[in-house]
Structure formats: C-alpha cells, structure tokens
Amino acid sequence: MIEFAPLLTLEVTHDYYGGRCPDFGVWIPSTTERLLAGGRVLAKTREDRLNLLFEKKEAGANLEPLLPLAGRTLQFGLKLLNPGFPNFTELPFLFGEGLPLYRNAGADPSQLQAPVTLLLDPAHAEDAELLREGLFCLVEITVDAGFYAAPPAFEIAFQARAETLKYYVVARNYTAGEFNQLDVSDAGFAADARPQIRFDRIPPSGFTSAEIPAAQLGGSDARVTLFRSQQPVARQDKARKRIQLARNNDVIIAQLPQPGAAAATADLAVHLSKT
User: Comparing C-alpha atoms, which of 152, 141, 6 is closest to residue 76?
Assistant: First the structure.
C-alpha cells in the first residue's frame, strides 16, 4: 500500500489578519515540478498553506522516503492576489530592485532567512520563466535529510503598517459652541483587550503639510477640525470597536470608519450636518 507523510509546509502570515494571510497564490516553476515528481512528492494547497507530502518507502511507522530529495533545492513563487497589500504592509524590501528571495540558507535549515535581492537574466530560460510570472517574491528551500522525520513549518511573516490615524470632522449648521463640544475617543479598548488610542484635537491653523488642507474638505459654510492619534496605529482587518464621535458626551457615531485594505492612507473624513 502506498503511504505519504508530511515533508514540509509553507505559509504566509500577516499581523493585519492576525494570522494566516490569504493574499497570495503559490506557483511552482517547471524545474521544481520535475524534482517533486522525481522524488514522489505531492504538493497540495489547503487553507492558504502549501503542504508537501513524500511517498514512504514502506508502510507503517518508518519515515524513510522512497526517493529522497535531501540536498536538492525547491523553488516556490508567491503571486500577489490583493493589489491593496502594500497599503497595510511594512514591506521588508523595495519594489523594482530585483526579485525578493527567501531561503533556508542559515544554520537552522528549518527557518527562512530575511529576503535578499535576486537579479534575474531574461536570457536564461529559468530566469525568464520567473520573470514571465510577475512574482511578488521567490522562496528557495533546500531539503534537509531531517525534514523526513521532523517536517518543518516554514513561515513568511509580514508586519502591519502603522500610521497616524486621522479623523477630519466637517460640520455644517453647527454653532461654534456646538462644534467645540465634538470629541473623538476610543471607548472600546478594554473590550478589545488592546492599548487605548488617544486623540489630539487640531484646528485648521495647526494642520501640517502631511494633512489635508481644510479648504479641500469643506466650503465656507463648514467648520473643520482634525482628531489625530497621538501614536501610530497598526492597520488591521478587523475593525477596532467603539472608536466614536460624541458631542458633549452624547455619542453621535458609535463606530467611526477605519482605513481598509484599499486605502493608501489613514486619513478619514467624517461629515456632519444639522437640519
């Protein structure tokens, strides 16, 4: 009876999602496809994780491979599926400076090192194949003999981009007194079990070049102010609870919008109008 056992796994995680990242597809170059076929290794993707399974030499507890691949290097390309990914990610490399390459070339073969830049030559067939695919990055894993007994779980971990959270409140038909009673606060930090986000109120005269000019937000009939977080706030897919807008402690908006994946900045305009 033919039996397979785990050889290794590869997955991408991201602080933005609080775990596994669904923003990539895995592509396997033809050279690696041939190596996997020759080593009787199956490649299966399940729940955004790549799983490699090797055929065992014999059934039972013995984990000896039928055709060992120890010492051979496998390549896997990651193709970006979400164009908004750079908006919420602290990238560990710069685009346009070659193909980022992750390798298990350190002392511990079960760990990937920080990416290096791979310069590709389109005159070489293997490089040309990589260039045609428009890859986000490349992963090279050299199979260690110990993988068969203790399959490693390779991970590429991305950090969420942190930036100042800005709420521009644009109010019409508010008196100066009413407008000055407006406040943005974080009332959900305890329920979310996270640090509290505190905001400073900034008048238009205090806007910096990094802020949207008040004239672009409202006309002469509008009052404008900015509530700016005191510290950078990391992007996350799940909205933080009860970042709210109130007037004289009466909540007007219980859940203010938060920057989504498609937003390049954390600048958010909130429009209020009284009839």
Answer: 141
